[in-house]
Amino acid sequence: MKILRARFVTLARLGVVAILGLSASCTAPSSPGTSSSNPGTRDTFVLGLASEPDTLNPVLGYEPDGGSLLFDGLVRRNADLTLAPALAERLPDVKGTTVTFTLRQGVRFHDGTPLTSDDVAYTYQAVLDPKNNSGIRGDYTAIESVEAPDPATVVFHLKHPYAPILQRATLGIVPRRLLQGQSLDKAAFNTKPVGTGPYRFVSWTPGDKVVLEANQSYWGGAPAIKRLVMAYSADDNVRATRMAAGEFDATELPPKAAARFEDQVGLTVYKVPSADYRGVMFPLDAPVTGDKAIRKALSLALDRSAMVGAILTGAGRPAFGPVAPGTTWHNPAVDGTPTPDRDQAARLLDQAGWKPGSGGVRVKDGTPASFTLMYPAGDSLRKDLALAVASDAKKIGVDVRLAGLDWDAIEPRMAKDALIMGYGSPYDPDYINYEMFHSSFSGQGFFNPGHYKEPDVDALLEKGRAETDPTVRKQTYDALQQRIRDDEVWTYLVYLQHVYVVRGKWTGIAPAVEAHEHATGGLFRTLAEWKPAA
Amino acid sequence: MTRALGRMAAWRLAFTAPLLLVVTLGMFVLAKASPFDPVRQYLGDRALTTSPEIARQIRANWGLDRPLAEQYLTWLGNLLRGDLGESRSMHRPVAEVIGERLGWTLLAAGCAMVVMLAASLVLGSLAAWRRDSWADRLISGTAYANEAAPVFWTALIVIWIFAVRLRWLPPGGLTDAASGTVEPADVLRHMILPVAVLAFSQSSWLVLFVRESLITTLREDFVIGARARGLRERTVVVRHALRSALLPFITLLGARVPELVTGAILVETVFSWPGVASASVQAALAADFPLLAALTLLATLAVVAGNLLADTAYVIADPRVRVLGVS
Amino acid sequence: MATGVAGGLTRSRRRFPRGAAVTLVLLLLAVVLVPLFARLDQQLVDLHAASLPPSLTHPFGTDEVGRDVLLRAVYGLRVSVLVGLAAAVVSVTIGTLAGLAAGAAGGTLDRLIMRIVDGFNSVPHLLFGIFIVALFTPSTTAVVVSVALTHWMTAARIVRSEVLTLRARPFVDAAISGGSRRLRIVRRHFLPHLIPHIMLAAVLMIPHAIWHETALSFLGLGLPAHLASLGNMINDGARSLLAGNWWASLFPGLFIFLPTLAISALAQYWRDRSNPRWRSELQL
Question: Locate the ABC transmembrane type-1 domain: which residues (chain B) (predicted)?
């Protein structure tokens, strides 16, 4: 036994030596960064964000709807979504196919060079240039050309009258000098962006964080928060825990993860309504989903309040149309009940000839009421919504079969199978809706996947786009929403609320109805105006 | 010995090149057979609002419509020149992505190996020493059970206990984001759970091996002979018993690199550890072929290197192999 | 390892592992019988019963959309076993063909096939599996292919080594000199000897296949996410773990852990009792 004990002791010593010796060689890899700052002081503010931007170059698609802290656009948005001039001196009138902006004087880029109309013209031209492969080019196709007749004037020539042109002018302006003549994909600018915004770029550690510091000579006044760190952490649970641990000063979270912060001292939870909706896109040329009675009955049978309560844990509201309540464009007449009305749904189906058949599935002229509903693999929210739709449909005798697929597998099937999709922009009703419902876009990729072709709807969309009188536009879009509802082109399920948790008390926080893509800054777009409440 | 080693290494390397060629060709063919559209991956969220005509233009710009053989040779040529391509999901050069993340994986995996070695040696010896006692049963039993438990499940249980209920340790991530540099203490705190889980999951075979090996070795002729010759216990243990007992272990360790990679993939994913292993999952979810191919190649190289290392160690440690030559 | 005076294998398990056998039988029974009595509608949710802790009506609780965890775990095990079986069959088939060709033909073909085996073995299984499913639509077929392509090498090795042994036996020489063609020798003489090895390899591959499928599903690369797969369930459960829902992750994991443990205990017992040479072969 003594022998064995001695061996054990030797081994134990060996083990300890091994741990110490080899641990010494486990050095932490250094990551590029700047001098450390004191966490928790008022001067540094750390944001925990879910998705890192692919690029910091507005021409390649960085925050085209404003909300970027590095860049300014010609205009910007107030909290009530009205436009205010930014780099432009005032909002121009929009009439006809020419729009003229006069630039604000004395604006400089972060590197000290002055802003001129050449930079504005270059920015828009670069977006439109096919060689640059900009992913947002499609949003600006109404622009024919951009001129800079003198250093303070920019003239847009449009291909056709385009009412939303001012909304599109939120695009961040880049300095022509740093980008012209280069291949945009490889430009040094992409890793060291220079803009005119309230924050200037310090560093970007991909996969980890972006560090910004206040632009002391900002034309709108220097921000109170001197240093901003945008940290990226894709996993929601991890972000929630890092927030709880004090690592972040503010973060965005899904509703379930934010629930634990509700009543904590020193933290405020903001639930910001959004125009971000989820709904069922129906292929209108397919046998079962092409029948309006099926679509309407399904809409009646859905328990939207349970979806909001269980799947969104209360952070959302039922949706009945593509234009969100809370925006000026919403038509209040387009509405519905959040709880299901299965009796009425059943009656509708009976009247349309869908009689109860075997296995609880309705049949009409030999065709069973059955279709496939797809959801994108990896999206658990859409998966849960699809499950809820299938469950509710079963109760009225409609058999919905689910398929979780990748987007590439979904694309070719959209003409035959239904899909849980999501969109939503609060800025202008022309955004996205034109491409969604106009017959000229029917079946083009992800535009109008349902093949909706109605000439009078086309007319409404075209009129809304070209008309500049706000009252007429409002009427047009009200009529559009009513028509979409009557035809039940989509069955809208829910509008999401975007949930944020903020540490400390601040003034200048201005929740506004948000868009579908989180990249537009959300609640943090006004960070330059946040000041600690006394 | 150096000649034998040199010969073996050269032989091995000669085989590695065609091996890698076959692996890359296989990957490329699979990627081409895939129905997934790289342009859609590149556009990401924007794909839903970009017209098909613009997508077609991007495709033409990238040369995706060229013949297959040409694309493969171009890709291979770039690879040999050191250009690993651009990651379609992270929109940065693949070499950059790997460069940033490899260090974290090596750190976590390296420390996990150290912990695993030390703990297995200690526990295995303890179990061999106190054979058939409650300690032995506990250690052996846990080792067997551990082999059956999926590592992502044990990771979640560990997170539940230590991060949710006890709140002693963070459930994931790398560091505190507020400071600009990496603070070792902070990384250490975030590292404890992932390293522990990875080490624990890889350790079963080693614990059992050490245990069995020691039990057997101590009964052997040469040990009894050494003791009979009056050698000190320490000499007996270290120079004779341990060396012989641990010999196959070094070889097996190098051969366990594939399991280590697998374990790293799952542990890094559960703990949101920003290493190359979790990057492979992200690349897979985004069908990002350039990044995924590079990472697969990297892992293959690691496996080959591990095997080479194991055989080298074997040659060095075992005089019989030296004399008789390497097969 | 040399054998010494006291030599031989250390006997750690000599008694028949009754507990393992009972567990396995119970689980198999559950997998076969439960679907006959309680049919699971894979698409039915009950949003009003979301995240309920374990109780009498729901022994394993409910998940975040109100589905009973116990019923789904049983179905999940069934799917995993079926996928595991299918994958094991496919991989053993490929492996047998390759091993037979290599062992029987010898020479260049043998060396070529062994190089290919080495090549496949050089890529870590899960990573290779991830690579395959990443590039194709998530589906049962993709998962089965992924498992098969990463595990056929073991069967190939076993079959090849058995064939090499058999080739050396006198009855083969007798058959050749008797005028039998090569294929006939393979069929009539080799296969009967190989069948038990092949079957054992297939059975032992099932836990690996199950593990591989659940790992892929956990990562979101396996079976479609709304289906009851143990990996999917743990993936869903992980999301609500920090919110306090431990039952949705724990119980599905248990259903992977228990059968694997049981099978490995039984395999260990079988191994210890029978041919020691198998011990190295079956280090799967």
Answer: 102-310
